[in-house]
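Re: [ENG-882] Designed sequences occasionally contain unexpected residues at chain ends

Forwarding the minimal case from QA. Structure tokens:
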């Protein structure tokens, strides 16, 4: 049970990091276009 929770927590952290990275990439992309 603890292992499953730990794995889900890691997946959630990865998902958050990916979405945050996309947001930063999108902002810098728009800045370059402007």
């Amino acid at each position: 049970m603890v292992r499953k929770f730990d794995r889900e927590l890691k997946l959630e952290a990865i998902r958050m990091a990916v979405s945050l990275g996309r947001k930063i990439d999108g902002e810098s992309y728009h800045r370059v276009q402007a």
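QA comment: On inspection the terminal residues look reasonable. The mean pLDDT is 83. Proposing we downgrade this to a documentation issue.
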